[in-house]
Write a structure and sequence with these properties.
Blueprint: E1 17-19, E2 32-34, H1 37-46, H2 63-88, E3 96-99, H3 102-110, H4 123-128, H5 132-151, E4 157-161, E5 164-167, H6 172-193, E6 210-213, E7 219-224, H7 230-245, E8 248-249, E9 257-261, H8 263-266, E10 278-282, E11 290-293, E12 297-300, E13 309-312, E14 316-320, E15 341-344
Antiparallel strand pairs: 1-2, 3-15, 4-14, 4-15, 5-13, 6-7, 7-10, 8-11, 9-10, 11-12
């Protein structure tokens, strides 16, 4: 298991496990491994991870920063390939799993140089920089091909990525006031219909019927207060959804919300109460200075810097080699898969 992101600390297995050498989103300060000497051996033989500009709050890159990032991604890919081939060929494995971070980082920070639908896309700039995102994908394609060849004709190969990318968007800078307006309106609506059941002594318009949960740029997650019960709870769900669907970009008139899900209701399990009650997905590229609706009024704030690209539903799975029986994979079945992983069986 070679450098898969988001892994727990390596434990003894009948094989090797390297974690957090060259991945997007480190869990540990330094690489971890089983056996323990493996991480040190990898760094000494193939080098430390090159500097990375891939961060959550990194703004759009200048030309020189794009070229610097491209160079570091190409170097990290070369290092990962050299190390991966070394350990792939060191033994006969039942399973060999390796992941590449480069598509992920490039998608977040170079998407405006690739997608004509991105508001900052500029054909001249993309041409001048020689299509850097395309270069990353070509290099990855070559790397995958080399691993497939090294695995041999008898190997069963799976190549997959769990997501697509799209122009990034967010309304985080507006979310706190938005939730305040939702709570105020829910209180007024439920109080008027006398359908709420909340053991609060404060006026209805001051109660927190819903609260904001941490999430990513292109979605907002809400939890309905556990004290909202009975018909009042369902009413709160319906009211919030209807008001959010009416939200528009105050400057362009375009809709803000692309869809709303109810994860805590639709995903059964002993821990489903930890899921958001409402997951609000924004229209691709939504990044408004102000939003408005007849029910919630106008909300505006200065826009922060955001990275150009973000995750979108989609992805792909390619299987090749010995006959494999499988069904069509739905999006929720691939949530834990890692971008550009190669299985060599």
């Amino acid at each position: 298991v070679f450098d898969i992101p988001k892994c727990r600390p390596p434990k003894p297995i009948n094989g090797i496990h390297l974690a957090d050498w060259e991945v997007h989103g480190h869990y540990f300060q330094n690489p971890r491994s089983y056996p323990e000497y493996l991480a040190t051996e990898v760094i000494e033989q193939f080098g430390p991870e090159p500097p990375s500009k891939c961060g959550y709050h990194t703004p759009a890159l200048e030309d020189n920063e794009v070229l610097e990032m491209l160079g570091n991604l190409q170097r990290s890919l070369d290092q990962k390939c050299a190390a991966g081939h070394h350990y792939l060929l060191s033994e006969t494995w039942d399973l060999f799993l390796i992941a590449f971070k480069e598509a992920h980082c490039a998608g977040h920070h170079l998407w405006d140089l690739s997608d004509p639908n991105h508001p900052n896309y500029n054909t001249r700039r993309t041409t001048r920089l020689d299509e850097p995102l395309k270069k990353v994908f070509i290099d990855l394609d070559t790397a995958v091909g080399e691993f497939i060849n090294a695995a041999g004709d008898k190997a069963v190969i799976a190549v997959f990525t769990p997501t697509n990318m799209e122009p990034n968007g967010k309304i985080e800078h507006l979310a706190e006031e938005l939730v305040h307006r939702l709570n105020r309106n829910i209180g007024e609506s439920l109080a008027a219909e006398e359908k709420h059941d909340l053991p609060f002594s404060s006026p209805a318009h001051e109660k927190e019927y819903c609260e904001l949960l941490p999430y990513n740029d292109n979605c907002t997650a809400l939890r309905i207060n556990s004290h909202v019960r009975g018909s009042g709870r369902l009413q709160a769900f319906e009211l919030i959804e209807s008001w959010l669907k009416d939200l528009k970009n105050a400057d362009t008139g375009e809709p803000i919300v692309a869809g709303i899900d109810r994860p805590s209701m639709t995903h059964p399990g002993v821990r489903n109460s930890a899921l958001p009650d409402l997951l609000i997905r924004y229209t691709s590229g939504t990044f408004p200075r102000a939003i408005s609706s007849p029910q919630l009024g106008r909300i505006e704030a200065d826009r922060p810097e955001i990275r150009p690209g973000n995750h979108a539903a989609g992805g792909f799975l390619i299987l090749a080699g010995a006959p494999v029986s499988y069904t069509h994979l739905r999006a929720h079945e691939t949530e834990r898969l890692i971008s550009y992983a190669v299985f060599c069986l």
